[in-house]
Structures are given as structure tokens and as C-alpha cells.
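Let us practice reading a record.
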Amino acid sequence: MSETAQISMQEASTELDQGIFQRIATDGEDYQPPSTSRYLQLRLSDIETENVSHSISLKTIKSGVEHFRIHGRDFVLTPDTVLLVGIDTPFRLSVREGDTVEGVCLQFAPQTLMEQFKIERHALPRDVVFRMPRAAILGGLPDALLDGTVTMTDELFLKLQARTYRTLRRLSMCAKRLSVAGQAKREDIISRLEAARYFLSSKASEAVSVDEAARHCGLSSAQFARYFRDAYQCTPAVYHRAIRLGWLRSVLTVTELTPREAAERGGFTDYPTFSKAFKRAFGCSPSDVVKQRS
């Protein structure tokens, strides 16, 4: 079976009014770099191909496993992850024999990004790749997008385009802050840190140690603490405390809990410490937030 015959690219499931990206239905045709942004529903099986990403793209899958080789590093794309790829990025994609992958690729053409963000082409993230938790960038949308049960409107596509571009730009800047030799190594570290950062964000109601977060992303505690501080310019503890305090502010706003009860629910065993940190973060005390309920 030829390479192209094993790729099925189906058109987006809904009509788009403004025509900001090209609807296609390709099966067995030669692939052409996009001149406009596109939303592709893909079905791949028993394939190995090399190409260059001519657009910023977000790749995610519903089922199966995709294997990528980029910058001399192997990436395994599973249903709970996404790949963010910059323009002009060479890659090798393979789906192993006997496996079938169903997924989505959002391709954001340079011209549409340049027009939306009023930037020049050289400002676009180039020749970079990061792997991150799917929910961290797509939120509640993944299943709906992959199943075709959500309408892919121009408005939604533009929102995803902006989110993808800004995330890729942020990750590229974080990678440049690392004092580590080799682009592939820096991208790997940032991908691991993003997994840990999402893990910390999901633990807003409890205390999490640096050791636990480090284990989650496969780094030693010392490496994790150093890389996190360099990349995000704050310590893991400071970041997680900000997440917890923000969550507790919401709890105090929408529930009938007292400040002390909220502090206990958020894993703060010492109320004065919680109250002081809360006031430093928001400029008001927990009691002030409670008073504003009525």
C-alpha cells in the first residue's frame, strides 16, 4: 500500500461562513502545504512519512498512537496529549502496523496568524515542538471536537488559533530561559514542566510537595525546582500557592464556608499563614471576601 493511500483526510463537519480556512476531502492525493488555515479530521494506519510543517499546528488524537521523530527526539502522541508544532519544523510520522489512529490536526497558516496578531513572519514560533496535556490547552473541547459533536465555527477556530499561537510563543520563551545546551533538550524539559504545571493546577484543593510534582514529570526534585524557576521565573511552591489561593477565593465567593473552613479545605493547616498570604495576593482579607457575599 502506498504512503498516500493510507491517509484519509476528511472535511470539517460543518460549513464556515467567513471562509478563513480551506475545507478539503482528500483520500490518496498528494499532500500540499496549506495556504490557509485548516481543520482536518484524520484517519491514519500503517504509515511512515517525512514532511515539514509549513504552518503552526496542533495535533491530537481520539484513538490509537502516533509516533513522531522531531529534532532527533521521539514523541508518542496519545489521546490525553497534544503536540504543538511551529512553522518550518521537519518531522517523521509513523503509525505502526495493525494500529489505526483517528484524530484532528488544526493547521494555522502563517498569513492568518500574521493578520490576526499584526506581526511579521519572523515573529512566529519556528522549528519548535512541545508535547503537553490535551486538557491544558483544549479544556472541555477535545471529545466534542474529535467526535464532530461541536460546531467548528469561525469564531471557535479563531479562538483556538489564538490560544495555540500564544501557548507556543510562551513555551518557546520559557525554553530560551533554560541554561541547558541543545534545543531538543530544552523542548523536552519544557514539555515535562508543562505536565507538572498542569498537575499542580489540578491540585488546587490540596498541598503538593516538590518531590511529588517532580516525580509526575520524570525529573529529580533538584532538577525540577531549578528548571521550573528558570522557565517560569517563580518557584513551584509559589506557583502552586497562587493556584490554591485563587481557588479558595472562588470558594469563599460562591459558598457559605467561613474563612477558617475554606483554609482547611484548601490544605492550609495554619490559618494566620493563610490569611497573610491571601491578603498579600489579593489586597484584602478572607473575611472581606465573605462580607461581599451579601
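A brief commentary: Residues 154-176 form the longest helix (23 residues).
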